[in-house]
Amino acid sequence: MSEKLEVGSIVEGKVVRVKPFGAIVSLGNTQGLVHISQVANSFVQDINDHVKVGDMVKVKVLSIDEESHKIVLSIREALPKEERRPKSNKPFNKQPRRQSEASANPAQEYFRPQSSVNASSDFEDKMKEWMKQANDRQTSLNKRANKRSY
């Protein structure tokens, strides 16, 4: 099936079909699939924005399954190393917020840790309340069950 093709080799092929999940690329006497996730470095919403039928593309052979006659290809992996990394529009820059910005965020107040002095007594109070509610519910269920059995 693929005497010339080897896993890891970069070859040139022609796009013969485009499907919503990927592109079928002809590699001479065989064909392989470039999954939509392997078309570009960034998220691909519509594959038709990146490849069209008849396009000549360089692809890297990711795997060859002789039994099922399937070849998995990648356009993304065939790119030069400096182009492979996804480019984000916003650089990662984690800087501490100013105090005024932090207080403007309502979630900040919600997630602020409570004082540890009160934590155990609050927990015990909540557990007592929960146990009382659970016992009341169980008593109610038992009363209903007893009425039905008569």
Write out key terms for the chains shown.
150 residues, five-stranded mixed beta barrel, alpha+beta, OB fold (Dihydrolipoamide Acetyltransferase, E2P), 5 strands, NA-bd_OB-fold, mRNA binding, S1_domain, Ribos_protein_bS1-like, General stress protein 13, 23% strand
Summarize the structure.
The protein has helices at residues 81-84, 99-104, 106-110, 116-149, and strands at residues 10-19, 22-26, 31-35, 56-65, 70-74. By secondary structure, the chain is α+β, with helices and mostly antiparallel strands.
Would you give an account of this structure?
By secondary structure, this protein is an alpha+beta fold. Among the domains are: 10-79, Nucleic acid-binding proteins (OB fold (Dihydrolipoamide Acetyltransferase, E2P), Beta Barrel); 118-149. Helices cover 33% and strands 23% of the residues. It has four helices and five strands. A hairpin with a 2-residue loop joins strand 1 (10-19) and strand 2 (22-26). The chain is elongated and about 80 Å long. The mean pLDDT is 80.
